[in-house]
Amino acid sequence: MQAFFDQLLQAQYHDVMSSLALVLGTGVIALLLALVGRVLTRRLTTVWGTSLHANMLSVGTLVFWFVLLAFSVAWSDAESLMRSWAVAGQSLLAIFIVYKLAYQWIPAKNLARLIVYSVVPLILLNSLGLLSTAIATLDGYALDLGNIHITLFDVLRVAYFGVILFWLGRESNRVGKKKIRQQKNLDSSTKEIIAKLFEVGIFIVVALLLLNILGINLTTLAVVGGAVGVGIGIGLQSIASNFISGLIILLDRSLSIGDYIELDDGRSGTITELTLRAATLETFDGKDIVVPNDVFFTETFTNWTHKNKKQRYAINFNVAYSTDLDRLFPLVKEMLAEHPMVMAGDHLPIEERPDIEICGFGDNGIDLLIEFWMEAIDDGPNRVGGDLLYSLWKLMKENGFEFPFPQREVRLLK
């Protein structure tokens, strides 16, 4: 930059105007190229959004201008004033590009400020020819720990790129999983498989990039990691088991989001989340049950709604021996068919229609069984069984039928 000012003071009027014309001319050409690009990509407005597409004009102009000046620097003489003007213009354009990209395209404002406040000084130092001196000064502050040599420049570099990489990894993971779960041509299990594999892939890529920035030899790390992995595998067998079980569950699709699961110990709930470690069951009373994935391989469970949401339920009750069953049965079937949640109609197979039958003869009355089908779980918002019991009580009362009660005959012997 000092050479630029020296050349500017010694240059003739003609040379200054030629250099200025070069910088401004490349700016005009860059603006025309950006306008052409905006017209050609107008159809992408519905995909990118109007505001983002509009910002492409200003950003595109700056980028095209920067590239054209780069060609000018490459083609001009090393000691010419024209080249110095082009380099100075590049530095200013680089600052504007970083500023616009950071504050318009990065939603995290703190990260945007970090990039602007760190990159802009680097651009200025480079344009002044002081960047190498600054790096050498930071390298002068060092700490030796055995065979490890750590400098202040290494610490700042790792911290800076670590923050950026972890933010990029988190945002890529969030956006990628959101896009995957919005795919309508995939079922829920396939979406979860792809989302989890994408998450693991992002984590691996970020970790490898950070290790590369640290200057760690990946070959040596592989040997050490193998030995450490064996020790961790022995001590964390349960975690490894849950991880592998989670992959198998997602791959074989034996469980899906929305399935109603009943465990062997009687606990039950709807699956609201499937991870590589555990499945979360939400009960009808608002509680969450976290079930480790290996439980689904070591214990039996019932999946009520995996392949078919239709469920059959039964209600047992008794009537007196004096009851006219020929009159009761049609009334009960009509009452069942009137409930909006009960499957009924001649279009259904006979085994799925509402039915009532005799299931035994008790000490105090006739044992009857009501059977009905519904496309939901009889609990929570769909408490059909309770509704039917109330309707049955009203039907019995209105039509003169009686529920039996225990009766005992006592005989006195002399």
Describe this structure as you would to a colleague.
The protein folds into 4 domains: 2-129, no CATH class; 150-242; 253-303, SH3 type barrels (Roll), CATH 2.30.30.60; 311-398, Alpha-Beta Plaits. 59% of the residues lie in helices and 14% in strands. Helix 2 (13-40) runs parallel beside helix 5. By secondary structure, it is α+β, with helices and mostly antiparallel strands. The strands form 3 sheets. It has a 5-stranded antiparallel beta sheet. Strands 8-10-9 form a 3-stranded antiparallel beta sheet, covered by helices on one side. Strands 1-2 form a two-stranded antiparallel ribbon. The chain has 14 helices and 10 strands. The model has no long low-confidence stretch (mean pLDDT 76).
Reconstruct the topology from this structure.
Layout lengths: L1 H9 L2 H28 L4 H4 L1 H26 L5 H25 L3 H20 L2 H10 L1 E4 L2 E4 H30 L6 H27 L3 H18 L1 H16 L7 E4 L4 E7 L3 E5 L5 E5 L2 H4 L2 E3 L7 E9 L5 H13 L17 E7 L4 E9 L9 H15 L16
Antiparallel strand pairs: 1-2, 3-4, 3-7, 4-5, 5-6, 8-10, 9-10
User: Total domains, how many?
Assistant: 4
- By secondary-structure content and strand pairing, the structural class works out as alpha+beta
Cα-based radius of gyration, to the nearest Å: 38 Å
What is the distance, rounded to the nearest whole angstrom, between the alpha carbons of the first and last residues?
130 Å
Main sheet overview: 5 strands, antiparallel
Order of helices and strands: HHHHHHHEEHHHHEEEEHEEHEEH
Q: What is the averaged pLDDT score?
A: 76
Number of beta-strand segments: 10
- List the uncertain runs: none
